[in-house]
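Single Protein Entry

Contents — chain, fold
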Amino acid sequence: MSNIIATLRPASPAEYPTIELIAHATWPSAYGGILSPEQIDYMLAMMYTSEAITSQVASGQSFYVLETMDMKLLEKQIVGYVSQELDYQPGTTKIHKLYALPGVQGRGYGRLMVDHVTAFARAAGQQKLRLDVNYKNRAIGFYEKLGFGKIERFNADIGNGYMMEDWVMELSL
């Protein structure tokens, strides 16, 4: 029996710097073999400041933090986050971001976050769950295991000579 309890809860603005720290700790591992260090730095600066997260929330995203509680030590720690947007397209909820610290990956936390968004979307009457994932990201297999399918390739110019080269993936609810 595990001594760790994991829960998801809405992120407060005071926790946006923690989300930024997790992104900075996670991205080199997730994208180091895919993107240049310069592009990683550019994208982190573009998406992960308190101001950027505040703007994303104002445009419809909801951020949740994944908090673990070690019942033996009675210590809480935020180890991941997910952001979602209801009705990104009519009847479709989008997962914009989903990350867990490298040291806690493989413990079922990613599935917990996807299950949270799935339950949220179903309760809101949505028909699909959607996400974009870099076409070389090893997380593609994780999402396929959860039932997501590749819909199309999508490339987006994000400025400064950089591209986001993604698979659009969907799960029917």
Remarks:
- The first strand starts at residue 4 and ends at 10.
- DSSP finds five helices and seven strands in the chain.
